[in-house]
Amino acid sequence: MTTRSYTNARIITADNVISGHLVVHDGVITEIDHGPCPMNDAHDCGGDYLAPGLVELHTDNLEGHLQPRPGVHWPKAAAVLAHDSELAGVGITTVFDALRVGSILSERVHGYDSYARDVADEIQLLSKAERLKINHLIHLRAEICSETLIDEIHQFGAEDGVRIISMMDHTPGQRQFRDISKFRQYLQGKQGMSSEAVEAHFEKLFDLQRQNGAKHTQIIIDHATKVGARLASHDDATDEDVANSIKAGATIAEFPTTIDAAKRCREANQAIIMGAPNLIRGGSHSGNVAARNLAEHGLLDILSSDYVPAALLMSAWKLANIIDDLAGAIATVTHNPAKAAGLVDRGILSPGMRADLIRFGVVSDTPQVREVLVSGRRVA
Q1: Which residues constitute the domain of residue 313?
Q2: Which of 8, 36, 98, 331 could bridge 139 with an S-S bond, Cβ 3.0-4.6 Å?
Q3: CA-CA distance, 237 to 225, in Å (whole number)?
Q4: What pTM does this model have?
Q5: Percentage of residues in the chain with pLDDT exceeding 70?
């Protein structure tokens, strides 16, 4: 039984920011109130902010640790531990590790192998051994245009606790890469592919869409139902895209690429996720709708760090200036993602909630994480 208390803090609650104190006992928040803490050993925050621990629904940051350079494969345990420490350091206390299921094995040079099952096993092993700082959950990024989706997705059962499955379709000329030149630029820049290799890869994806598109989509839908996972659409661009995701039963809309698609997602009560890097940079690297544009139209519910973990808190701070509501902005990286994923014990600073919380200050208009608690235990 441990008690930890904070005083002289700006506490970001569900709908307000108060100056006061907060008490944690045995991993649970037990008290929040205005004014100084009566406990003599309370930690003086010096006016720093206290916020709920950040909840990340979609990040492939782990892949960068597993393969730090093209063709360089890092030991899985070391990669998971490094990823875990990085996320803890930027205030993320719950992460849905987005693991790809569905590989292309037939392309000699630019195909990609399966990895999700082995990595999930490593995450679960390290978690059970209490070696991880933060809470890791599984999000399967199901690649429709692939060769091995069926085998890979069926390696995951209800016992794995898969919470989210997203339907990914990277066929050139639609969704994220409606502008094929952006897709070409991405592959040449990140993968070092020649023009000839890019065109061959495009043809491969077109073939896979024709052969497997409808079949794989239905398998993803069925498997989400089987394992009790929430279904997410990905990169919806048109009314037809959104209509299909609604029909599939998607409750989460990841990164809609047009404002019209986002409006349709809102009408369907889907939780709309946009990328934190998009908001910070002022636009999409793929040339799609800007996250700020959606925020200004009330069409942004959740921010995701995507490929830059440190972007999550930064983007919420930036969003607060856009919508003039710090509590509402922080909710996009705490309460809203927790709610969308069905996690009812975190995401809000309130008595009775899990003591996942962060303390941060602000330097040069940039939030700096100074302390992180997970279930009342300091991890960073």
Answers
A1: 3-378
A2: 98
A3: 25
A4: 0.92
A5: 89
